[in-house]
DNA sequence: ATCTATCATGAACCATAGTTCACCTTGATG
DNA sequence: CATCAAGGTGAACTATGGTTCATGATAGAT
């Protein structure tokens, strides 16, 4: 009753030092494993990679789904940061919105190639992500980029954030770099503003 | 030694009538199951749907992979037919190449939505498809469409069959119809011939 | 230094899903 | 219609992989 350290009544005691350390190790290792072998890697694999026993994984994450979700969450956070940075650059007049958006898309495609699995995992998990905050951050930033591009007259006026999501979700993750570059080249024209070819 | 019915020495006797019937039932049912639930449906499920026992599946297909491959093969054959029909139409002057190609893409996207799983399965299976013939047929037909469209001046001159494959392989299968339509609208501009927007 | 709640360990457990096989059924042949 | 090999059946086997839990170790407080 004389404990003074907790922020609220429902707060647990402070976690032990090595627990924190392990949690981090697990998250990193799991991320790496998932990146390379896909979200179907066994818990044993990930545990081994992290240098701990399976039981430890379960101490930190009640279920495999939760672990993967945590990894995805980290990934999402990075993406959100990236998007916000791009938007900030545009706001500072350091880059044209369309270019930034394209570059951003490129980076994501790049990454989701590396993190092929994170993508698959994200789809598998679907709604069960828990922290929708980062998703919203990313969405808002992209919306900002789109709007700026439309003001510039570079981006089609009917393009929305959902379109970007749509494209995202179909980005080729497991194809060689050349293919991904080509894909981006094929897809971007759909975003840019220009007159349609003469009808019939 | 007095058997006369076989075409070659390594030919097996003729299959029994009900065997043929069952094979067809299995293929149909498996197709339907996979279409609805994805390639992860259990063998039991598919067997039940076909109205036979698991063992029967294994009599016809040595392994689950083979069964799924057979389903995929059927799907591929349909796609090939479709592509060739489209090409024929263009050759007869009944349709413009770009339009036919777009419509074809639309149909495939439409189907691979229905057959969401077939797609997933195809990727999972990768090379182990066995009958590459249909793949070639489809490829040739699409190549024909592309070329015709380029002659018309409707399709970008640098577009190749591989680009179509690339787009295909990223088609959104599990999204609602509206999203798929939108996707097609976003993607097609990348194929059409028109001047790029002014640089900087 | 001692003590204990937190944490880590990993062999064992269990559920799922592909696969097998000993035993029946049945279509075709004479 | 008698025969029998091809075909069908489904309970049982097996491999895989997520999950648990009794036991041992350790950080941190006294």
Strand content of chain A: under 5%
CATH class of the largest domain in chain A: Mainly Alpha
How would you name the CATH homologous superfamily of the largest domain in chain A?
Tetracycline Repressor, domain 2
Got a strand count of chain A?
0
Describe this structure in words.
The structure is a homodimer of 200-residue chains. Chain A is an all-alpha fold. The first copy, chain A, folds into two domains: 17-62, Arc Repressor Mutant, subunit A (Orthogonal Bundle); 64-190, Tetracycline Repressor, domain 2, CATH 1.10.357. Chain A has nine helices and no strands. Chain A has helices at residues 17-37, 43-50, 54-60, 64-91, 97-114, 116-125, 133-152, 161-169, 177-187. In chain A, helix 5 packs antiparallel against helix 7 (133-152). The radius of gyration of chain A is 21 Å and the shape is elongated. Mean pLDDT of chain A is 85; it is low at 1-7 and 195-200. The first copy, chain A, binds a DNA duplex (30 and 30 nucleotides) through helix 1 and helix 3.
